[in-house]
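debug: dumping io for the single-chain case to check the tokenizer round-trip. Nothing else runs in this session.
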Amino acid sequence: MSVSVRGDGQALLIGNSRWHWAQYNGERWSVEHTDPAPERIGDALNVWAAVGPVPAVLERLDDRRIRTRDVPLDHAPPWLGVDRALGSWQAWRRSQHLEHDCSQGLTVVDAGTVLSITVLDADGCFRGGQLIPGYRLQLRAMAEGTAALPSTLAWPDQNDPFPQNTVAAMQQGVVRGLVAAIQQAQRCAGGVLWLCGGDAQLLAPQLSHASDPVHVSSDLQLEGLMELSGGLSSNPDR
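debug: decoded output
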């Protein structure tokens, strides 16, 4: 890695199914989530990281790539996805800045294609985690693995725990299963809870009644990526 960003720039995090872009000008930054779009990659890209397939066009920009080993997350194993490393490191940094009580550590839930749960200890070191099929991945598995269940990737439009139609029953089953997994992990790990990723806003209301607050920051990994590159502004443009 050899990146240094001050002023204008662009960052890219390639996820398992979506690409996550950040544009910044030294004062403000904005985020965009798209399908894979290699045609958008150019010299304006200052820093990037990937957990999904990397297009050939990025080979010439390999010196701008951030890998897990570049993220200053203590005790992070080499197999840990760079997205999890970035999100956990940034969550720890923000918790320190906000003076959260991290005496029991910190838990970061990334609600993406795969829902990852990453736990840090009281010193901000990697402790371990869990991986669970995400919301759409579970819905797709039910549709493809059965003869009668329909295909749907939509978010639920009702909160009835026991719906009377099949699609809503699938949606509620997945959402409530993911929420239960997060709550169980939090009971075991304790500490500060952060929620990020594309489905963070879907799951956050279901976790809002917990005794401990849930800190929601959908683009935590991008924040960490820009922090490492030196291009993070404290005034995001949402």
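debug: round-trip ok. The radius of gyration is 18 Å.
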